């Protein structure tokens, strides 16, 4: 008897060189019975763990720094001064750090993971209501990064929701809205204190800042060595606070080495975004990072990105600029324009900051 070939819906079929015109769900593809190989248009030259001849770090030598948030909010002036200096050094040397003792309840962190999983488990017809159209749509779900422009697709589904200054939410599952509202508020409080510690520029407040909650779903993959969840990229905002379920996959590119992130339970992984690098005139680094996939377990991550107001024009802050020895390294740009341009392009392994850098 001939071997059974798994049925692939027409929307998931493709020629050797070109992806289909419409892809809505990697999850649906991953759940096809008997799927043993991935379609050609998911095979990525970003996927190899040894691409660009980058080596893996020694976890004992290159552990991601840890910031104790309780010290940042301490009434003790000496403690607070010391942790602020540590925070600024970490932003300068790494651009990534873990935050512990942040005060966001562990139960709430678990609840947002479960609520996001509930969204991805909706039927394809139910999710179609929120299919990605424009990058500034307040609720959108989709696959890859920019499926209309990506020549190679990524093994990822996402839900992106604008949660501040105006809160939006999908109507399903019913619990999502309430949980996402509370979670985004609590995380914004943490981000506000971190931003205050990083910069003395008091214009950097998040009261009217733009906050996006991004839920990422990386299903199991039969050939994880051939594809990738999200390739090398930086984040567009000021700070991103990320947490995940128990499944790892995030890697950070630090000093030419891949650092695999193994988060401390009930912690946030925080990374400096492009606009902290712009505001600090390059002193604080927006580090490249990527998400790998695996063939054993589904990974879910929740990233909350915090930026300035969409209509704010951002340029290097005066405290970081000396026109003679340290002139502005980035041209001014409205945050909305930056977001729209970055999100409308493709991820090519380079920082989008190169588009506004002054040479």
TrEMBL record:
Listed InterPro entries: DIOX_N, IPNS-like_FE2OG_OXY, IPNS-like_sf, Oxoglu/Fe-dep_dioxygenase_dom, Plant_2OG-oxidoreductases
Q: Which SUPFAM superfamilies match?
A: Clavaminate synthase-like
For this UniProt entry, the molecular function terms from Gene Ontology, in alphabetical order, are: metal ion binding; oxidoreductase activity
Superkingdom: Eukaryota
Keywords linked to the UniProt accession? Iron, Metal-binding, Oxidoreductase
- Cite the PANTHER family for this sequence: OXOGLUTARATE/IRON-DEPENDENT DIOXYGENASE
Q: Which family does it belong to?
A: Belongs to the iron/ascorbate-dependent oxidoreductase family.
Protein name (Swiss-Prot/TrEMBL): Protein DMR6-LIKE OXYGENASE 2-like
- Organism listed in the record: Durio zibethinus
């Amino acid at each position: 008897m001939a071997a059974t070939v798994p049925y692939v819906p027409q929307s998931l079929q493709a020629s050797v060189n070109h992806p289909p015109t419409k892809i809505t769900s990697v999850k649906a593809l991953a759940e096809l019975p008997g799927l043993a190989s991935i379609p050609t248009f998911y095979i990525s030259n970003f996927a190899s763990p040894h691409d660009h001849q980058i080596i893996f770090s020694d976890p004992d030598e290159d552990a991601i720094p840890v910031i104790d948030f309780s010290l940042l909010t301490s009434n003790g002036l000496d403690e607070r001064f010391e942790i602020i200096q540590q925070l600024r050094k970490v932003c300068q040397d790494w651009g990534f750090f873990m935050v512990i003792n942040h005060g966001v309840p562990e139960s709430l962190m678990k609840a947002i993971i479960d609520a996001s999983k509930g969204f991805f488990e909706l039927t394809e017809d139910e999710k179609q209501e929120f299919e990605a159209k424009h990058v500034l749509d307040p609720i959108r779900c989709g696959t890859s990064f920019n499926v209309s422009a990506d020549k190679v697709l990524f093994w990822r589904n996402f839900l992106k929701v604008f949660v501040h200054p105006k809160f939006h939410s999908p109507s399903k599952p019913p619990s999502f809205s309430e949980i996402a509202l509370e979670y985004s508020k609590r995380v914004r409080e943490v981000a506000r204190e971190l931003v205050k510690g990083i910069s003395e520029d008091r214009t950097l407040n998040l009261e009217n800042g733009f906050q996006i909650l991004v839920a990422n779903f990386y299903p199991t993959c039969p050939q994880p060595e051939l594809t990738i969840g999200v390739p090398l990229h930086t984040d567009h905002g000021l700070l991103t606070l990320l947490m995940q379920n128990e499944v790892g996959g995030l890697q950070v590119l630090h000093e030419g080495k891949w650092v695999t992130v193994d988060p401390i339970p009930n912690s946030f992984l925080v990374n400096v975004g492009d606009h902290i690098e712009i505001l600090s005139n390059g002193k604080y680094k927006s580090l490249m990072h990527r998400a790998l996939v695996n063939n054993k377990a589904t990974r879910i991550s929740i990233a909350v990105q915090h930026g300035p107001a969409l209509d704010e024009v951002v340029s290097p802050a005066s405290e970081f600029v000396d026109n003679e020895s340290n002139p502005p390294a980035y041209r001014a740009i409205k945050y909305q324009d930056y977001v729209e341009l970055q999100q409308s392009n493709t991820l090519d392994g380079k920082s989008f900051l190169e588009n506004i850098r002054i040479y």
